[in-house]
Design a protein that fits this description.
about 450 residues, alpha/beta, FAD/NAD(P)-binding domain, seven-stranded mixed beta sheet, five-stranded parallel beta sheet, about 25% strand, globular, binds flavin-adenine dinucleotide
Length: about 450
């Protein structure tokens, strides 16, 4: 008689919940441990007054193929709403709108860039075409030739200052909180392909609808902090604290799906490949300030990219009422102001009220009625938003994934071993589950074929 296999997953972000769901589907009796009192990690959607606010991840982009497939696989399609996004960027304090449904026409006709800059921008398009096979979530091998030059260096060498300040810099800062002096051209090229998309999706319960739903398939234990994981050769011991009590349980396999620092702390046996890779990871800070308004701004933009040269403290302003239906009543508005890593570092001593005042002031540059119509607000100062994607990062991710021990009982998943974000975390989680399931299968086959 075959015995049920068991799995522990540590961390209920998108990486952990997708790993847990897949392991359960593969026949593992799965337990999901989460230190917080909620599922989702950096995905966090709440109702406040009339407003449904996404305080972390903002949306499912049209290019998040794996995430959309999983939404459909688990029967959440009825919750899925598609929206056509209108892009916008600021130059000299003035908004310019981009129609992503007609990218060529938009580039040719927009007054956002000078004719000379538009001609030069063709070079960015050529890089996208050249590297198109590596602009997904699986292999970044072909990006290595552009992974060692920074966006700043490349734009100055190949393009011009205008394209650096109004395309290169805002593209990597407004999407990845990244610094153009530190991050490589590969991220810029990857972002052009994946982030400037016309169709975005969301769920009626907010972005968190997917991880919340995935967690219902498994035994989910909130407010359980895992303090140690030990692979003792025949199974995995998971030690956790809950309600002030420490306990240990045994599982056949385990996925550690936390950010890198807790993963290194709780698993002293971590292999050299993972430890060296995790040691190289740091995170960017990001302020997410949600503002519920009694009056909806008339502006059509869904997402304002704010070039750092225009405002180094704000990376973007999202009009949530233009990103999905029913985020706010029809006549009301909902905005999210994303404050930069540098601003967060500088404002550590300030109170949340001070940060709110600052965000309201900044938002009023684009939507002048914000101060007089503010009804609800939430301030979240994320210490970890996304991993830093510095020069050489694509190469490090490739090397790390090639050297994975696919047969280890303890596997890792997170948004740091892919291009980050919701879809990166999800792909990583599904990958970890597949490795464990394949390894268990091959162990079973080996034991069946072993001579008595
Ligand atoms: C403001 C903001 C906006 C963003 N916008 C977008 C966006 O629009 N699109 C996009 O794709 N991405 C976006 N991101 C990034 C995205 O949210 C992350 O890349 C992704 O959610 C990371 O998922 P994860 O599962 O790897 O990690 P996490 O979500 O951090 O999950 C890890 C979990 O592990 C738990 N944990 C840690 N230690 C322990 C322990 N010892 N025991 C038990 N549990 C533990 C944590 O509490 C957490 O729940 C945004 C992030 C932020 C902060």
């Amino acid at each position: 008689m075959s015995q049920t296999r068991t799995a522990a997953v540590i961390g209920a972000g998108i990486a952990g919940t997708s790993a847990a769901y897949r392991l359960q589907q593969e026949g593992f009796e799965t337990t999901l441990f989460e230190v917080n009192d909620r599922v989702g990690g950096r995905i966090w959607s709440i109702w406040k007054g009339d407003f449904l606010m996404d305080l972390g991840t903002s949306a499912y982009l049209g290019t998040y193929r794996e995430a959309i497939e999983l939404v459909k696989e688990v029967g959440l399609e009825h919750e899925l709403a598609e929206w056509t996004a209108t892009g916008a960027a600021i130059r000299n304090g003035k908004p310019y709108y981009f129609d992503y449904t007609r990218p060529l026409r938009t580039v040719l006709t927009t007054p956002y860039l000078s004719p000379k800059a538009k001609l030069l921008a063709i070079k960015i398009g050529l890089q996208v075409v050249k590297h198109r096979k590596s602009l997904g979530y699986d292999s970044y091998d072909d990006l290595q030739d552009i992974d060692n030059e920074t966006v700043r260096e490349w734009c100055r060498r190949e393009l011009n200052e205008e394209l650096l300040q109004y395309v290169g810099r805002p593209l990597v800062s407004g999407t990845w909180v990244a610094d153009d002096a530190d991050t490589s051209v590969s991220l810029m090229v990857w972002s052009v392909r994946n982030m400037l998309v016309q169709n975005i999706y969301n769920l009626t319960s907010g972005v968190v609808g997917l991880p919340n739903h995935l967690a219902t398939y498994v035994k989910t234990r909130l407010e359980h902090e895992v303090t140690n994981v030990t692979d003792n050769g025949s199974d995995v011991e998971v030690t956790f604290t809950a309600g002030g009590q420490q306990q240990t349980e045994h599982f056949d396999t385990c996925v550690i799906a936390t950010p890198v620092e807790p993963a290194m702390d709780i698993y002293p046996q971590m292999d050299t490949n993972t430890r060296e890779f995790y040691q190289s990871v740091s995170y960017r800070k990001l302020g997410s300030i949600c503002l519920g308004l009694s009056e909806r701004p008339k502006d059509p933009a869904t997402y304002y990219l704010v070039p750092p040269v225009e405002d180094p403290d704000v990376i973007a302003v999202i009009a949530d009422h233009n990103k999905a239906p029913n985020r706010a009543p029809d006549h009301k508005g909902l905005l999210t102001v994303l404050l930069s890593h540098e601003y967060l570092e500088r404002s550590e001593h300030l109170s949340d009220d001070d940060v709110l005042d600052y965000a309201v002031d900044r938002a009023s540059r684009y939507h002048p009625k914000v101060p007089s119509t503010l009804e609800e607000s939430v301030v979240v100062r994320w210490q970890r938003s996304v991993p830093t994607i510095d020069r050489g990062k694509f190469g490090r991710i490739s090397d790390y994934n090639k050297r994975l021990d696919r047969f280890a009982r303890v596997q890792f998943a997170s948004d740091s071993d892919r291009i980050p974000g919701l879809n990166g975390g999800l792909v990583s989680g599904l990958g970890a589950a597949k490795r464990l399931s394949d390894a268990a299968q091959s162990r079973r086959l080996t034991s069946r074929t072993r001579p008595a």
